[in-house]
Design brief:
Chain B: Belongs to the bacterial solute-binding protein 3 family. The complex is a heterodimer of chains A (about 375) and B (about 450). With about 375 residues, chain A is mostly helical. Chain A contains 15 helices and no strands. Chain B has 20 helices and 14 strands. The longest helix of chain B is centred in the first third of the chain and has 33 residues. The chains are: A mainly alpha (about 375), B alpha/beta (about 450). At the A-B interface, α4, α9 and α14 of A face α3, β2, β4, α10 and α14 of B.
Chain lengths: ~375, ~450
């Protein structure tokens, strides 16, 4: 007699597998996947908990938003602990944006900002119609229009405004935009020149690049604004803003040239050889084969140079140019606004300003890189 | 020497090519060469201050540029860039500071300088003529020192030094707005004067002998400052002597530290010093109780006190331990311009002494009371014309800008947030040092 074993009760169901979707799983996969990761996550969270609440309290909760003088930002006047004194920034905003630009003419820098947004947006928005025209506008029409608007043109009925009155964000944008608009084309030319077969061109470009890379920017600025007038006859004066502008542009070009050269060297020589075999002219090879690939490779380097340039513009304040940082420094010593939290507020505002622009540039570059990489299916 | 063409280092470093090109000393062309040699030296002497007083010390003593922001305060910016003699700035034994020995080298320099001098001479006409031809005055100011030169919320320049330049423009053009302000960083200010980039430098600059001999002249002192102390009121300290064995907060890289050490040693006292990188940190160090006193130029102490959490809890000692006379600077070698710079300030002093103000000067001019007032207002004599201006020059200054007392009160005194007492800057009739020679 054989015995048969029959289960009389159901096997209890096993626990379901760990979630593979949903926020819980994401947290587990990304933040707590191993002991080390879990520890790192906890430490970072603890640091954030330590830093963020006081920062938020200082910048927002305890901040003073309105007031006519520094008195409003004193704890005894406010009757509570006082954080950032945004009333100060509000009062000084006009000065921070325009510097000493005459009040009646401030629509002109506004118009320049609008044109800048239009040109920049046109060129940077990849699906915009007629982007070639946009580039022409940004690199050709915009600089001329901006110059006429800012400096003035009596022929057009625009009162001349000497550059000594420009200040604040106007100067910061002018210096960085001139640097960007000049350095990219000039840098590409220099990079090509340095790889040229013609020894004179190669030597000239190499000398130029090595000279500008070999001196610190601060030296260039000092030479331009402190020493240069001593070497010129007294009746020749070069505009005080133009001198550092030229210095910054040439300086940035040298760095840009080396970035672009890195890209050119990364393009396999077979590409140019193949193009040549197809019968393309040298110019066509550059334009359709080599440069597009080279530039694509160095997008991070180019953006890096731009961000560095944007931040380096603060150096012009040392030679007496009233850039954004400089006017902020002047504004915060106003005795009418003397309050304990005013200097910190001023620097917090500067940090936000520079962060917003640099982070914006970095994010845009990341977007471009993703888009370029998509073509190769290498995400 | 108007045109500064040849830096000294070219002479000291003796480039090899000079010797090769010029060869040994040849007789025969002595007269001409001697003249050129003199020119070369003149250029060299003229440019020396650019290195010794303008650029180097500021770099050396500030330990870089980051201190510049804080350095814009009256005190240390000024104290810091004191010129040091060229020979001190250069390591002993280097050929840099010594006059080059061999004559061919010097001739080479002279010839080079002469070639560069062929450019049309810049200061053939006086500064006044240049200013008039240009249509505006160019005035060098600070990049922002509260009460002295600082843009307001609309970007208009305000301050004691700014009003001085406006007074000059009023005297020259009858329009105080015909002046352009060039903000100058501390190291750049003297070269800007020497190169003619600015007509006058009104930048809370201490008048010292070394600066006066460095291709610059100074006008009348428009503010007497000195190093002072900020202490807590509840400490009941009335004079600096009571700070014996005290700890004192200072900003790094300025001469305030040297002044302090000198003064305490001379008085047989001891002190300990805590230095900070910038004025913000210095103040918070003082406020947090690390020091018994904070020391910097007295004119900036009033601004610092305003920044404390409770300004009422601190007092500024009356006593000063150093002399910091602020005077406008101008290029050397133009006596007429120097007279105008000097007398612009004296006119404002005379006006205060005679009771002429911005409000009453028009009425007073119609019915002047005394011969002295008649002379000041240009109704008698031709004093203005002799200055190179019009006879109503002082009237213009008073009408557009006001007398010294008004300007002082508006910018740094009772009428301003700083509330600096007149002290040394009171008229001589009220126990101060401001003394305007008579206009007659």
């Amino acid at each position: 007699m054989s015995e048969t074993f029959l289960r009389t009760a159901e096997v209890p169901p096993r626990a379901p597998p760990a979630a593979v979707g949903g926020p819980f799983a994401w947290v587990r996969r990304n933040l707590f996947s191993s002991l080390g990761n879990a520890a790192t996550t906890l430490v970072v969270l603890a640091l954030l908990a330590l830093v963020l609440p006081p920062l938020f309290r200082f910048l927002v909760l305890d901040a003073v938003w309105t007031g006519g003088s520094g008195e409003a930002c004193r704890p005894e006047a406010a009757g509570r602990p006082v954080g950032a004194c945004w009333a100060f920034i509000h009062e000084k905003l006009g000065y921070l944006v325009y510097g000493s630009y005459p009040l009646a003419e401030r629509w002109r820098p506004d118009a320049v900002f609008a044109l800048m947004l239009l040109g920049g947006g046109w060129m940077l928005w990849l699906d915009a119609p007629r982007r070639g025209l946009g580039a022409l506008f940004f690199f050709g029409v915009f600089p001329v229009a901006a110059y006429l608007l800012l400096a003035g043109a009596p022929a057009l009925g625009l009162k001349p405004v000497p550059t000594g009155l420009w200040g604040g964000m106007i100067v910061t944008f002018v210096v960085s935009l001139v640097g960007i608009v000049v350095s990219l084309p000039l840098g590409i030319l220099l990079a090509l020149g340095r790889r040229s077969d013609l020894p004179v061109i190669r030597l000239a470009c190499t000398l130029f690049i090595e000279f500008w890379r070999g001196v610190p920017l601060i030296t260039v600025l000092f030479m331009a604004n402190v020493m240069l007038p001593l070497f010129l006859p007294g009746d020749i004066t070069i505009d005080r803003l133009l001198r550092p502008l030229v210095g910054v542009a040439l300086f940035a070009s040298a760095y840009m040239a080396e970035v672009v050269r890195g890209g050119l060297q990364a393009v396999p020589p077979g590409q140019a050889q193949a193009a040549r075999a197809l019968g393309l002219t040298e110019l066509q090879i550059l334009r359709f084969v080599v440069l597009p690939q080279a530039i694509k490779i160095v997008v991070p380097g180019i953006v890096n140079t731009f961000i560095g340039l944007f931040k380096d513009t603060t150096l012009v304040s040392i030679v007496g140019i009233a850039d954004f940082i400089r006017v902020l420094e002047s504004a915060r010593i106003d005795p009418r606004w003397a309050a304990p939290s005013v200097p910190v507020t001023a620097y917090a505002f500067a940090a936000l300003f520079y962060f917003a622009f640099c982070f914006g540039m970095a994010r845009y570059a990341a977007f471009i890189e993703r888009r370029l990489a998509a073509g190769e299916g290498a995400r | 020497m108007g045109v500064l063409t040849k830096p000294c280092w070219a002479e000291g470093s003796r480039p090899a090519w000079t010797r090769r090109v010029l060869g040994p000393n040849r007789a025969g062309s002595r007269g001409g060469v001697l003249a050129i040699g003199t020119l070369g030296e003149g250029c060299c002497a003229a440019i020396t201050p650019a290195w010794s007083s303008g650029v180097n010390p500021a770099l050396d003593r500030a330990g870089g540029f980051e201190g510049n922001a804080g350095a814009e305060k009256a005190g240390e910016s000024d104290a810091r860039a004191d010129p040091i003699p060229l020979k001190d700035a250069i390591p002993a034994g280097s050929s840099f500071g010594r006059r080059a020995g061999s004559r061919p080298v010097r001739w080479g320099i002279g010839i080079l300088a002469a070639a560069l001098l062929l450019a049309p001479p810049a200061q053939a006409q006086g500064i006044l003529a240049q200013v008039k031809a240009r249509g505006h005055l160019v005035c060098g100011v600070s990049q922002g020192v509260a009460g002295f030169s600082m843009p307001d919320s609309q970007g208009q320049w305000r301050g004691l030094d700014v009003e001085f330049c406006r007074a000059m423009a009023a005297a020259i053009f009858d329009d105080p707005d015909k002046v352009r302000f060039i903000p100058l960083a501390s190291p750049a200010r003297f070269t800007a004067v020497q190169s003619g980039e600015v007509d006058v430098l009104a930048r809370n600059t201490t008048w010292t002998l070394a600066r006066d001999t460095a291709a610059m002249n100074f006008g009348a002192v428009n503010f007497y400052d000195g190093q002072g102390f900020l202490v807590r009121k509840d400490r009941n300290i009335a004079e600096v002597r009571q700070l014996d064995r005290a700890t004192i907060c200072l900003q790094q890289g300025t001469t305030t530290e040297l002044n302090l050490a000198d003064w305490f040693r001379a008085h047989g006292l001891t002190q300990s010093v805590v230095t900070f990188a910038n004025s913000e940190q210095t103040l918070s160090g003082y406020e947090s109780g690390r020091c018994d006193a904070l020391s910097t130029d007295k004119s900036s102490l009033f601004g610092e006190r305003l920044k404390t959490a409770d300004p009422e809890a601190h007092v500024i000692l009356d006593e000063l331990i150093s002399k910091e006379p602020f005077a406008p600077a101008l290029r050397q070698g133009d006596d007429q311009w120097r007279d105008i710079v000097t007398w612009t300030h004296y006119a404002m002093l005379n006006a205060e002494e005679a009771g002429l103000t911005r409000e009453n000067v028009e009425a007073t001019r119609k019915a002047p009371a005394s011969p002295n007032v008649r002379r000041i207002l240009g109704l008698e004599g031709r004093y203005g014309q002799d200055l190179g201006l019009t006879n109503d020059w002082a009237f213009r200054i008073i009408r557009h800008v006001g007398n010294y007392g008004e300007v002082f009160s508006r910018n740094v005194g009772e009428g301003s947030a700083l509330k600096v007492p007149r002290g040394l800057n009171a008229l001589w009739t009220q126990g101060g040092l401001q003394y305007g020679p008579p206009i007659r």
